[in-house]
Amino acid sequence: MFFKYLVLFFLFISFSISAKSKAPVRAKKGMVVSASEIASNVGVDILKKGGNAVDAAVATAFALAVTYPQAGNIGGGGFMVIHLKDGTNTTIDFREKAPQSAFRDMFLDEDGNFDIRKSTEGWTSSGVPGSVAGMLFALKKYGTMSRKEVMQPALKLASGGFPITYRFAKALNYYKAEFVKHESTKKIFTKENKLFYEGELLIQKDLAKTLSLIIKNGSDGFYKGEVANLISKQSKENGGLISVEDLANYSHAERTPIFGTYRGNKIVSMGPPSSGGIALMEALNSLENFKFEQNSWGSSEYIHTVSEVLKYVYADRAEHLGDEDFYPVPKKWLISKERGKEIATLVGKNAVPSNKISHANPPKKESEETTHYSVVDYKGNAVSVTTTLNSTFGNKIVVEGAGFLLNNEMDDFSAKPGTANQFGLLGGEANSIEPNKRMLSAMTPTIVLNSNNKPYIVVGAPGGSTIITTVMQIILNVIDFDMDIQEAINRPRFHHQWKPEQIDYEHLGMTDDVKKNLISKGHFIGRERTLGRAEGIIIDYKNNIIWGASDPRGYGKAVGY
Ligand code: DON
């Protein structure tokens, strides 16, 4: 009898385990989760050598610029959210800036229509890169190691080459037709009459030279001298706007994070010029007014509630968000519990049509505020970084002689009110093009602290406009649905951004019944597609375990020790 129960017990355990995702990666001391296994290893090696999470994050960033040129970069920009063991929370904004000669209507054609090719292709699409300035500032202020120590691994990977993975080879081959349009890109990222194959070495000599100059001269190695001259000369020759002065004048900014709480946990996220932290908080503040039963996950009621909230959040985003150095963002109101509650009261049984929803306005004027990787070290520091060239491989233009790809981030500006960018996002005055302004982002690098103010979840993702909803759903999956970090990341996601008026979803994310119920509530079912590629960490203090998970939608890796 006892034996029978024992067998049944083990059967139960094995079934309940097999119904879940594979367990996350487990570690005791530190963890780096990035879109490239080689880059994650670079970060962990730095931790093992005694570096802190910031040292590891900077080393990982430069390694990603070599091994994951789809989004890892020195020709783009991004955001870093830092929590230090002494309780400090801060963010570094190294978002690209519009060149000095950029102007409001620069992407309109003679008839005044938005020409998306101008904002996504060619030299006009590039903002002044921020990654090198941001990384070196983070290292100097919050790191412990020298530039050489953290950049040497990237330099070695660029000069000696690294074996490319199956998926990376596929990505390079997929974009061949675009790469060959630019001699400088063709030379590095294509092969004459042949395709890349898994395991071969990709060597990037010019990039190695640029990295050496940065190691030697710091920011000046990129923003002044040889590299700056190459960028500005080629920009001028090809109708671009980035000048030597734009590069010399680029500045990163250290900014106060967006703070909020969700069901007793403290959220630390990125503020303007990213909309990520504000939109995430506005959504969470509203969703806090609802109670989600454990088995309501994936139900039409759950998807309806979250989608309705998101419509108001994205409507507010389109109206109110932009670079705060240029536009007064009503930040306090947007992330207030009151605004969250107000949205919650507008959620009814049926969907409100998107054209009946418009942004709200703050009660009174306030006085006044894409690849992701997550790092934690054993000292209690945590770093959450999202960085991007915007489109995959940016505008696909390598700076000849300098070996790196340029961003096409100018498309994140609102080129014409009421006209959507490549992510279908709308915007207005707040995000119009102005010289030296930073384009609005959706990047949402986030650290969730527990009630003891210690890092609990470190998470972020690429995915354009879907970044915010990806990060939000992972936080809901962990906090409301009690999932581990791997499962929280794996579960199919959905996405609503107010306009277009539709719920996009992932494969197996919505059954026909759920779709029918949502349609009967007045929703429109959109496209089935991949939504975000998250890289996350959870720290379990009770058992002293760091759990890491890379998104199966990509081919990254969580590496711990
Ligand atoms: O800053 C932003 O919101 C976009 N440039 C991010 C682009 C992105 O996530 C591309 N990855 N899929």
What does the overall shape look like?
A: globular
CATH class of the domain at 84-98 and 251-400 and 408-561 equals Alpha Beta
CATH-defined topology of the domain at 84-98 and 251-400 and 408-561? Glutamine Phosphoribosylpyrophosphate, subunit 1, domain 1
Mean pLDDT, nearest integer? 95
Strand arrangement within the widest β-sheet reads 1-18-17-13-12-9-8
Helix content: 25-40%
Bound small molecules, which ones? 6-diazenyl-5-OXO-L-norleucine
Query: Can you say what the CATH homologous superfamily of the domain at 84-98 and 251-400 and 408-561 is?
Result: Gamma-glutamyltranspeptidase, small (S) subunit
Q: Bin the strand percentage.
A: 5-15%
For the largest beta-sheet, the strand count, sense and barrel status come to:
7 strands, antiparallel
Gap between N and C termini = 43 Å
Instruction: Indicate the structural class.
Output: alpha+beta
Poorly predicted parts: 6-18
Radius of gyration: 23 Å
Number of strands: 19
Please count the helical segments. Answer: 20
CATH architecture of the domain at 84-98 and 251-400 and 408-561: 4-Layer Sandwich
What do these coordinates show?
The structure is a single chain. Helix content is 37%, strand content 15%. The chain has 561 residues and is of the alpha+beta class. The protein has a domain at 84-98 and 251-400 and 408-561: Gamma-glutamyltranspeptidase, small (S) subunit (Glutamine Phosphoribosylpyrophosphate, subunit 1, domain 1), CATH 3.60.20.40. The strands form 4 sheets. A 7-stranded antiparallel β-sheet has the order 1-18-17-13-12-9-8. A 7-stranded antiparallel β-sheet has the order 7-4-3-11-10-2-19. Strands 14-15-16 form a 3-stranded mixed β-sheet, with helices on one face. The longest helix has 21 residues, at 300-320. The chain binds 6-diazenyl-5-OXO-L-norleucine. The site of 6-diazenyl-5-OXO-L-norleucine (DON) has 12 residues, from loops.
